[in-house]
# Entry
Amino acid sequence: MTDKRDGMNYAPKGKQNRVVGPGEFRFAAIGLDHGHIYGMCNGLIEAGGELAAVYDPDPAKVERFLAAFPGTKAARSEQEILQDASIRLIASACIPSERCALGLRAHDHGKHFFADKPAFTTLEQLAMARRKVKETGLKWGIYYSERLHVECAVYAGRLIEEGAIGRVVQVIGTGPHRANAASRPAWFFDPAHTGGILCDIGSHQIEQFLTYAGARDAKVLHSKVGNYRFKEYPRFEDFGDATLVADNGATFYFRVDWLTPDGLRAWGDGRTLILGTEGYIELRKYIDIARDESGDHLYLVNREGERYIDCKGKVGFPFFGRFILDILNGTEHAMTQEHAFKAAELCLEAQRLAVRIETDGYPK
# Structure
């Protein structure tokens, strides 16, 4: 589950950092359509969570999941899990367009919900989730893994909070991914199921911008999408970018794509460049091309000089423990609900406003 060439099934593992005792926090997985569910479960288990049960209508997916998480109960139905009063949280990486409906059902059964990104594929779904959270008071967490499950990205946030680069002025993000088209399910190529490229992998980028800039809101100034390579899937988008400005004046440009070449030793050369008034930070998340196959590289330049910091295995993934404690204590230390929903809203807005680039074979 940690093949760096396969982004869909890349599931980071960290050190044990238990915040609860055995049996104190039981959760279940429903919907195994995307491999991110493995990373989500890894993080919760490392924080002390107990993976009590799993359900998916596909027995093959369940069998594979049980091999990775032995001792987990294979439930006979979704209802079996929803009606289990001992389970506090449902984690899901079902088809994106189906995540909101599952989250609503989870809340209706008194359970918190943790969705893979994108948590929503339409603004209408997001509105329903906002109403449900207000009605129930339960958490609706979203797995923005490119910040939450990347040690150099976590450490960058700490450096910014400590004032290492002053006030953040601009963030530039790149999120290239390898398509691995032959191994993808049919829904992957249909924006009706994924929300489109800016909604899907663009959500990682926008969440990072809001975090690093310390912003509560932003406006989408311009966005565009196109299909340059995968003409056999005419509705698919293999390229997208957008420009935003935050409510505090910070600006943002990001580009996402499904064009990672086969020769790269990772599933994508994800990078982030954060400019401040007193310095800048560059993150090379998954690889330092032609130099170091490992990831979690951080470069810091400020008035004190130039520094390289290898974050691999040294920072950890604090989100998961904080999220568990937030559920138990009614706090918001891992991520505020409004932040999670605002990042989702802005990626949906970027997708809605996107200019369709006319490429050969792209439908008008």
Q: What stands out?
A: The chain has two domains: 7-144+318-334, 147-316+349-356. The CA atoms of residues 175 and 256 lie 5 Å apart. DSSP finds twelve helices and 15 strands in the chain. The two ends are 39 Å apart (CA to CA).
